[in-house]
Amino acid sequence: MSKFVRGDRVVNPDFPDWGMGQVLSDEADGRVTVFFMDAGDKTLMLSHARLSKVTGHEAKSLFLDNLAIERDGEAKGFRSINEAMASFHKIFPGGFKGKKFAEWERDYKVDGHQLMLGLLDKQEFAKLLDKVNYTEICDRALKVVNKLNLIFPNEKMALKDGLKLPVNQQAFAERLYALLYGDDDMKRRFEAFAICLANLGAAKWPIVSYFQFIRFPDRFMFVKPMVTQNAANIIGFELHYSSELNWQTYDAVQKLAKYLKGRLSDMKPTDMIDVQTFMWCIDSAVYDQYLKDIRTAESV
């Protein structure tokens, strides 16, 4: 009988609700440690546990392809997607389609999306660039930023201050248009915009990810560092996180969002606006703190 080795994809027929797993280390002394997508780390004696290898197309998994491999024994605080859904429903009993969710989380973000469409859709943005009206573009971008509470006030101020110089306004306008509507590959567009923000003194994850999220909520996820890291850590998804803006982390966040949207299909999420809130609610304590931060910011 072939041994299990690190990286093998497996299932346990006796516990199908664990989902597919990935072997974390080579089999030794008749035991093997596996991370199961819906159960976390399990160390199993093969004399008592039935494991079956999964190969070919059935072994494909966006999640396991991005599994956080470096683990200290049993994952601390692991929560399955089903457990995370239960946590979400405690906060929003009506789910994504409920009145509370619409009033608390969705409607105002949709309003921000509509504002973005009205001020900086592709055609209008291109007209302003043709007229070399960089100041107007920056003013409109700041209006879209200020519409929502997703970015901290100090981060908004850093962006506003950085856009006071005409040379910075031109660079920002051109790089933002390229990010949203350019033809180059996304990695280059993202990196160019990140460099631009660094030159403005506003190289923060919420800012670099905000405009794509609010313009194309069907495709792009907003990055709030602590919340996103917390959600990824709880379910075991590797973000390769760094506080410095980088493509690897941004791409990993988009993959995490895509994975979650797929897993939440029974709840019928409309777009990444819904998925973004779900990330906050994976840990209800994090969502509670988020609400406190909003109230504090609004009282200032």
Q: Tell me the Rg in angstroms.
A: 22 Å
Q: Report the portion of residues in β strands.
A: 5-15%
- Shape label: elongated
Strands side by side in the biggest sheet:
4-3-2-1-5
| Number of distinct beta strands | 5
Structural class: alpha+beta
Largest sheet at a glance? 5 strands, antiparallel
Tally of separate domains: 2
Distance between the termini: 67 Å
**Which stretches of 5+ consecutive residues score pLDDT under 50?**
none
Helix content: 55-70%
Q: What string gives the helices and strands in order? A: EEEEEHHHHHHHHHHHHH
Key terms for this structure?
alpha+beta; 300 residues; 2 domains
Description:
This protein has 300 residues and is α+β, with helices and mostly antiparallel strands. It has 2 domains: 9-76, no CATH class; 79-300, no CATH class. It contains 13 helices and 5 strands. The protein has helices at 62-65, 81-91, 99-120, 122-130, 134-147, 153-162, 166-181, 186-200, 205-215, 225-235, 247-263, 272-281, 284-299, and strands at 9-11, 21-23, 31-36, 40-45, 52-54. A 5-stranded antiparallel beta sheet has the order 4-3-2-1-5, with no helix packed on it. Strand 3 and strand 4 (40-45) form a beta hairpin. It is elongated and about 75 Å long. The N and C termini lie far apart (67 Å).
Report a brief summary of the structure.
With 300 residues, the chain is an alpha+beta fold. 55% of the residues lie in helices and 7% in strands. It has two domains: 68 residues, no CATH class; 222 residues, no CATH class.
Give a topology summary:
Layout: E1 9-11, E2 21-23, E3 31-36, E4 40-45, E5 52-54, H1 62-65, H2 81-91, H3 99-120, H4 122-130, H5 134-147, H6 153-162, H7 166-181, H8 186-200, H9 205-215, H10 225-235, H11 247-263, H12 272-281, H13 284-299
Antiparallel strand pairs: 1-2, 1-5, 2-3, 3-4
Helix pairs in contact: 3-4, 3-5, 4-7, 5-7, 7-8
